[in-house]
Amino acid sequence: MSQSLLTVAPSPHIHTELTIPQVMRGVIIAMVPALLVSVYNFGLGAVYVTGLSILFCAGAEWIICKYLLKREPSIADGSAVITGMLLAFNVPSNLPWHIILIGSLVSVGIGKMSFGGLGNNPFNPALVGRVFLLLSFPVEMTSWPQAVATWSLDGTTGATPLGILKDGLRAGETVPALMPQMPSYTDFFFGFQGGSLGEMSAFALLIGLGYMLYRKIITWHIPVTMIATVFVMTGIFWFIDPTRFASPLFHVLTGGVMLGAIFMATDYVTSPVSHKGMIVFAIGCGVLTVLIRLFGAYPEGVSFAILIMNAFVPLINTYLKPVRYGRKK
Amino acid sequence: MKNRAFHKELKTFRLGGVHPQDNKLSASAPLAQLPLPKQVTIPIIQHIGAPAKVVVQRGDTVRVGQVIAQHEGFISSNIHASCSGRIGIIEEVMDSSGFKHLAVNIRVKGDDWLETIDRTDTLVEGISLSRDEIVARVMEAGVVGMGGAGFPSHAKIKVPEGKTIDTLIINGVECEPYLTADHRLMLEKPREIIVGVRILMRALGVSRAIIGIEDNKHDAIELFDEWLREDKQIEVQPLEVQYPQGGEKQLIQAVLDREVPSGGLPADVGVIVHNVGTTFAIYEAVQKNKPLVERVVTVTGKDVKQPSNFWVRIGTPVIELITAAGGLPESTGKVVSGGPMMGKAIADLEVPVAKGTSGILMIAQAETKRAEEYNCVHCGKCIEACPMGLEPYRLLLLSKAGQSEKSKRENVLDCIECGSCSFVCPSNRPILDYIRLSKTKVKKLK
Amino acid sequence: MNDVVIYTVLSLTGIGLLAAVVLYYVSKKFHVTEDERIARVEAVLPNTNCGGCGQPGCHAFAEAVVKSGDLSVLHCPVGGNPVMKQVAEVLGVKAVEKDPYIAVVRCSGSFEYRKKTNVYDGAPSCAIAAQLYSGDTGCAYGCLGMGDCVVACDFEAMYMDEKTGLPVIIEDKCTACNACVKSCPKDILELWPKGKKNQRIYVACLNEEKGSTARKECAVACSGCAKCAEACRYEAITIDHNLATIDPDKCKLCAECIDTCDVRNIVATNFSPEKLQQASEHRQKREERERKKREEEKAQATANNNPEPTV
User: Candidates 3.90.110.10, 2.40.110.10, 3.30.70.20, 3.40.50.300; correct CATH number of C221-290?
Assistant: First the structure.
């Protein structure tokens, strides 16, 4: 030792184990339960869509880094894999490969790399891709395969619970009359419903949330606040008129609320930095989701709600400062 | 019957905080006397304030405890010969601050103490001195804050004009990982420390003192509780383990739930905080007439053969301590003077132990080498960790952009440099490095 | 249907007219009369907004120069004399010629000469390292080599030489804007008169340690031996704190000091080897002459002091 030189650096001299690759790995692990439910429900389709999406996203990032930005490819940090998984979680499990490719290119290329890569994107990349696909390929993006474990790539398609609700209400039916057409709440909870790949099972997603909280990857502020906001707000409407509005439990368990609140609104880059800010952001996401679901043209509004709130993040960060020590007036 | 400390609810500070592994490897190593070195190099600035003025010359013979540098003004401190022998060269040498400062070298010969110093271990309990005499005695003995900052202690015992102090807090937190110097001192010299607390209470004119100890030092909490069973004025407050609880502002918030106003002093909220090491040094200065010539230093590290706690004479070269603890491990990347969170990495093992050196820590290169830096992902973990409620990620960006005015508005000067932000940053960003730079620039703005 | 079109056209035209009136009124009401010379001065300035003149930018410089009308203090280092001449024309005053300056690097402690004593692992910024400690080599005065100056340079006139670890200034690009000088925590960089024929001479060292210590820290450190100062005919070299410094105002660029330095650390830029050789010979001859002269004087003095011995 006496031959080699000592290292000198400013303090602190130790560092936590939880670095970006570890965080990303943690998030990927947290998504696995939801993926397993999907595979159980949709069989090979889920594997196919998720695999392709990850491959395309990581590939797009690698190519953009290597040939456009001419810098060391950054896929080792794992964020492209997460974008790929999240994009897959947000699309039906029977999506053709070319649409997945377009979605991946938009997600990574426009949503992330055009702003300078990890950390600089104002909008959640996976959601940018998802919304782009939803607007460009409305038919393919809303042909949900039914939740039956079919180990082939073809299956019957149908609407999501939220879609049934929206269409039914438009046709002049009442909520109690529509309810029998849908799976039970237990089915919602454990994932036997139609919908996007990752939003099947609230239960699986909650396991993921538990894991991320345990690893201290995220705090409770965004997911809990967002789900609570949706619950309370739909609860108020339901209380006012249960024939026109579905129950709060229905709203929380169906569609993308859980997925959005747990995995997409909590994205480090596109959510506020302070706890106060996180709560305001999550309330905004919740309120917008409910407004779009109940009064908007689309049956589901989580993606739009989160993207809209993403745009407010810089503003929230500027005005909602943490409590400073020793500066109470 | 007084409420026993270990039944009390654990307290802690409210904002931020992190939980590094505490790694108190040397907690069970009793205090041992380090053999006298061949020579000591005593820097004449080991405190905040004016440097002391050298009053000896090359070739002079000095005895242990003799003043070799006299304080200049009130915010300054005496420096004493920590070993007897002949004064060697007086020149600028590298010290643990990383810069060269004037220092006095003593070629050690024998161990000849001034006879006015009481070197016995007998406990002297009766306090006969008045407030001013205590301040004078502490000033004479060159006691400075031994937690690291090195503020002259006599200046802290003198109650500022127009301020009333109601509580004395004794800092036995030792929240830095690895360090056990204060812990061992509390276990081995509890009664002396308690007398020291009474001296401080008399000097400050307060009737309430609280000793804050973190819960990972349960034995010390129980010991003090036992000795203070009959005492109505001094109590022990167990604290949750959380870094940086030993920061003055955090400790005051934890114990009393008071907040020191920004830019203010603890005295502004009626509190004075002293470290246990300092309290012991004050006991020795007042009761034993012994100046600050030695201190407890923890020598530790995961690969160190015998993690130890030594009584070390001020000015002893660090290499002597390392040798006594079994030598420098092969894996060592950094040698840190102090703890891993706030200590200073030293480049040269010949640097002397100073009054504020609480530990010598050898960290393996694999553990301490900075990892690859990523972009800021705005995860907000630094904000969560900051005990001062600042936004470190923003301060880093402002510092890089050279925006000193804006940094000032973002309260960069409130930063206590605890390092929690850099510690938690998942992107390995050198947040505190840049915040420190920014602080220097902002201070120049005025 | 037609009605809609007509209404739309009419209402939009109305709004447009109203806005035009408001804009016209506002621009009249709040018109700021600015000296038109400011704009003309600004037009001839380089408009790099580098701040080298001491003003926050070119517009501020133009304002200041128009206001004071005095060109002896305010000077644009980037544009130099040609630009200042144009400025003088605009203002109708006499131009003040100033010698052009250039930044020089006052450290020669390359990797080869200055051994590392530790490894720096903090944020890659000289300012941060300088605040932490005296540096990763023994020399506390030398270049830290992380290139804060290169970052500060707006004109791409600097780069870090990977072989030496020292910054290099590209002569044609340096505008003497002072940005690098301000950015260097060790004050290695200094503005120096560019010199006649771009020739300049300076000591590339700032080490103030005693000679022996300095040489231990860096093989080419100035030890303050004063040989160069003795050789200088114009008293341009002073030794202060064991360090030789050349006063550029006194230096006549004779280059006779260059080879007196035993570590060859007096830098002479743009001198041909022949010229240096000449200067060296010139100095040696002069010293030879002076030595002879001294000897003669000494002999004379001895002769004078010792009158013929009495018998």
Answer: 3.30.70.20
Q: Kindly state the average pLDDT of the residues B23-47.
A: 93
Q: Does domain C100-194 have CATH number 3.30.70.20?
A: yes
Q: What is the pLDDT of residue A148?
A: 55
Rounded Cα distance, B428 and B370, in Å: 7
User: How far is it, in rounded angstroms, from Cα B108 to Cα B39?
Assistant: 5
The answer to whether the CB atoms of A9 and B345 lie below 8 A apart is: yes
Q: What is the CATH number of the domain that holds B243?
A: 3.40.50.11540
Interface test with C, best of B336, B373, B437 (most C CBs within 10 A): B437
B183-197, C83-97, C149-163 — which is least confidently predicted? C83-97
The CATH code of domain C36-91 reads 1.10.15
pLDDT for res B4: 63
Which residues in chain C are classed under CATH 3.30.70.20? 100-194, 221-290
Confidence of residue B415 (pLDDT cuts 50, 70, 90): very high
CA–CA gap between residue A192 and residue A183 (Å, rounded): 7
Which among A3, A4, A8 is the top mutation candidate for probing chain C, defined by the most C β-carbons within 10 Å of its own β-carbon? A8
Instruction: State yes or no: pLDDT of B20 exceeds 90.
Output: yes
Q: Are B308 and B325 within 8 A, CB to CB?
A: yes
Number of Cβ atoms within 10 Å of the Cβ of C49: 16
Map residue B89 onto helix, strand or coil: strand
Task: Tell me if B82 sits within 8 A of B105, measured CB to CB.
Answer: no
| CB-based contacts of A135, cutoff 8 Å, min separation 6 | none
- pLDDT for A147 equals 56
- The pLDDT assigned to B349 comes to 92
Could you tell me how many residues make up chain C? 311
- List CB contacts (< 8 A) between C128 and chain B: 430, 433-434, 436-437
For chain A, the first-to-last Cα distance in angstroms comes to 55
Percent of chain A residues topping a pLDDT of 70: 95
Opening angle at CA C2, ends C1 and C5, nearest 5: 95
Q: How confident is the model at residue B126, as a pLDDT?
A: 86
The rounded distance, in Å, linking the Cα atoms of B20 and B245 is 12
Is position B107 within any domain? Answer: no
Predicted-complex ipTM score = 0.89
d(CA A22, CA A78): 9
Q: Is C117 close to A10, i.e. CB distance below 8 A?
A: no
Mean pLDDT (whole number) for C100-129:
92
Paired tokens of A153 = 């790539």
Residues of chain A with pLDDT under 50: 1-2, 149-155
Q: Cite the residue boundaries of each domain of chain C with CATH code 1.10.15.
A: 36-91
**Per-residue pLDDT at B228 exceeds 70:** yes
Q: Which of A308, A300, A259, A263 lies closest to A283, judged by CA?
A: A308
Distance between CA A241 and CA A238 in Å, rounded? 5
Pairing assessment for the beta strands B100-108 and B39-43 based on DSSP bridges: antiparallel
| Through-space distance between the first and last CA atoms of chain B, rounded to whole angstroms | 55
Tell me what pLDDT residue C190 has: 93
Cα Rg of chain B (Å, integer)? 21
